[in-house]
Amino acid sequence: MIKIEVRPEVERALSAAFPVPKNAAHRALRKYVQVLEQLLAQAMINGRTPEQVKLNTYSISLQRLANLGGQIGPDRKRVHAWLREKGLELVRTVTQGSNLTGVVSTVKLTELANLVPVIGTLTHTEDMTITTNRGPDYVLDAVDTELTKDVDWLEVDMKSLNAYMQWVTEQSTLISKEDKQRILLQASTIFAQASSNGGKYAQIKKPSVFGRMYYEGLSIQNVNRELRRAILGDCWEYDIRSSVISWKMGFAKECLAAISRQQSIRHAFAATISYLEDREDFMRTVRHFIFIEGSNVPPDLQRKLLKQAVTAISFGARASTSGWFNMSGQWTNPALVEILKNTEERHRFLGDPTIRKFIQEQNQLDDFIFDLFKREASDFLKQPYLQTPSGRVSKSKVLAFCYQHSETQVMDIVRDMASKHGRIPLASIHDAVFFRQRLGTELKCEIEAVIRDQTANPYWSLGAKELQGYTCVSKELLEYEVQHQRRIQLEEAMAVGYVNPWS
Length: 503
Known about the structure:
Elements (H helix, E strand, L loop, with lengths): L1 E5 L1 H10 L6 H23 L3 H6 L2 E3 L1 H7 L2 E2 L4 E2 H7 L5 E5 L9 E5 L3 E5 L33 E5 L2 H13 L6 H19 L4 E8 L5 E3 L9 H8 L2 E6 L2 H7 L2 H7 L6 H4 L1 H8 L1 H12 L8 H16 L9 E2 L5 E2 L3 H4 L3 H9 L1 H24 L18 H26 L4 E5 L2 E4 L5 H15 L6 E6 L7 H21 L8
Antiparallel strand pairs: 1-7, 2-6, 3-4, 5-6, 8-9, 9-10, 11-15, 11-16, 12-13, 14-15
């Protein structure tokens, strides 16, 4: 999906230095360029930061480029080293990576190399496989062997995925060139590997000490929603509603008992319960007082921003900071000052009585859970992954650790009970799981009851959403449908004499 064009003087210099055997320089340079293309493609698949896009830089491993880029000559000189020594390097280092930190280098193509995007619909004969650190690609024949116990096999809807790539290539109009290239690289990589594995894509497990299951490299977890829908095809998504807030409320009863407050949970945590029971009404009420008449924020965006702001608060965001540690234990931007950029609207948000009560309740629950963990799991406090760089216990990381383990427990129950009823999970994304068929109201309620009973938390609930895969639609058919609709509209309008059919 990408191609690097190299200035001819590079190969001429290489041929002059290594004239024999014939075409050795051509073959060596071609191999080196192919490795560089793969590394740049992987960088695009993983996604570039806005700064990298602006500066036209990429994150790649120069060590891998050197090791895999081939050798030439009787002394087996590395092509990468020879190019650098002769001032003919194709990439220039912007920031140097480190084996100690695991951070790869940031590089930029030199004037001797030009990156040419190739956007087109993938065919079954194209091979866009990206080599990974794990060595050879997994094959389906090995799915039941000891070798692949660390792999989750993802069933790919090949027709849906191919239709999505066709749509992105030929019909999408609102996707930027950079995003389109990244999306197509991700889609074609999954398509190519699934094509050679009977429609299955290998996701290499990468469990986190925080409790979640991640995957190495490209997976169903780190693609955009539309690509995810295209990969899975027709299916049903079940996720935990307001998962972090629901989890915290599981500690509400203990929290009140600890502070000896003679209040009911409903009274003490009125704002949080209001949010959990009727989020739409909660948002409408807050929105009415925040975005007053004359606001330049479109109505559809108002609800989206409020959702982001409330979610940020539940994850620990503060109005005075530039970000917050989320429930993955990672520093996250933007914070409230970036979500609600209008100063007056942000002040109205933070001054709203409902929001002030919600923030107070969330802070109270955060403090209680953190103190409870320190008392009952003190052995964990010495673990580096729960500490700040200075060695202090990190409250945000502790909360993330507790939440993610609870989240995993809940989703394990969902997957296990669904499987026992013949609903085999297609894929999982932390607080969501996908099934080919709808669970049904009865089974969903049964699963929720078991979750609440086993976790002693009555606030867990599941949301259901039907997803539809993409279908191949030719340009001719699309044009025919447009013209057909136009004819119908004209006929209806003519029936009441509203238009001149010849205008």
